[in-house]
Amino acid sequence: MPRKSDATARTSAGYAELVKRLLPPDGPDPALLGPIVAMQTQAADRLLQLNQEWLRFTTDRITCDRALLASLSNPGDPAAIASAWSEFYSGAIDDYSALYRRLWGQYAEEMTEAVFDSQKQVQDLFMTSLQGAGFGEHRHATPV
Fold first, then answer.
1. Percent of the chain at pLDDT above 90?
2. How far apart are CA 133 and CA 42, in angstroms?
3. How far is Cα 131 from Cα 18, in angstroms, rounded to an integer?
């Protein structure tokens, strides 16, 4: 059976140390838990902002729906009815398209930044745990 390399053993030990620090018997290590809580708080705040924006958009769309219903309450010329529906659908499609493009563009940009930030934080936490386990950058595979 193949043996673990030194790098794999150090990585496993570092991960075990990280888990011990995050979940010790007396509770999580605040130094490690703080960045995780901050990241979750930032994500929750952004989600709240997106929901508020969606609510504003929905309110505007309902106003447009009510205007359409008001214009259709006195049916007249069939061409006027067809025109009202056409204008309504055209406006709704434009509004939804613009909103989705803007929101998904912001979301993609923010998620890309968040992924890079998270990777950096995890790397920093992992290096901290490795150093805490006695595996620092000062160690070399070959004697110096």
1. 3
2. 31
3. 10
